[in-house]
Amino acid sequence: MAKKNNKRLSERLQYVLNYLVAKQLDTIDFACFDRVGDVITSQGTREALNRPDTIQSYVKATHWFDIFWYYVNIQIKIDNDGISEIPFISVSFFQENDGILNQLFRAEWDNYNQKSHPQPHWHITSTIEDGFESLKEEAGVDEDSPFAELENEERKVNLPKMHFAMSGNWHSGNRDNMVNDFTDESQVANWLNNLFDHVREELKHAY
């Protein structure tokens, strides 16, 4: 019979993050995950505005490569049964522009019991309003300009509020199968390692 692991989930997750995930990151600064109670965060060196679309807070981002930075936050909560521990994971990716770190997008994996949103999922938080502002200035926008319609608040889509599915099982024909439940800390380590590998390749391709 396998020996039962009596350590808290937060302790087990901190271990796999520091000994399995950090080694894969190959960051320019350092990749260390600290824990305070049931909250685990990556330890960075630069201040960045996190979650600009919801609960705004400043965090310490870690330099990853080129002009890209990241921040990881994992909160352990007790499930509705009052016993089970479940993680809520948020990974933010930033781009440095003119000395300021701007969030591009977030990858999140929440473990709610309700199935209202796909898990895990993406939040696209890079603002597009700045692009419109520059276009307006160049075009000299007035009330007859085609850009004027874009300023109509009723016609705007709140893009950061959308949950873009990351692991939808749509190819099976089941369009509702978009929720992956947490099982153990090794699953989290695998997800984070593959997430960082994937994002690195895509950023290199797009930058």
Describe the structure in your own words.
The chain is of the alpha+beta class and 207 residues long. The chain has one domain. Helix content is 24%, strand content 30%. It contains three helices and nine strands. Strands 1, 2, 3, 4, 5, 6, 7, 8 and 9 form a nine-stranded antiparallel β-sheet that branches. Strand 5 and strand 6 form a beta hairpin. Helix 1 runs parallel beside helix 3. The radius of gyration is 20 Å and the shape is globular. The model is unreliable at 128-136 (pLDDT under 50).
- Poorly predicted ranges (pLDDT <50, ≥5 residues)? 128-136
The N- and C-terminal alpha carbons lie at a distance of: 51 Å
Order of helices and strands: HEEEEEEEEHEH
Count of DSSP E strands?
9
Which term fits the overall shape? globular
Number of domains: 1
Q: Share of helix among residues? A: 10-25%
Radius of gyration of CA atoms, rounded to a whole number: 20 Å
Strand percent estimate? 25-35%
Task: Provide the structure class.
Answer: alpha+beta
Largest sheet: 9 strands, antiparallel
Mean pLDDT: 83
Number of helices: 3
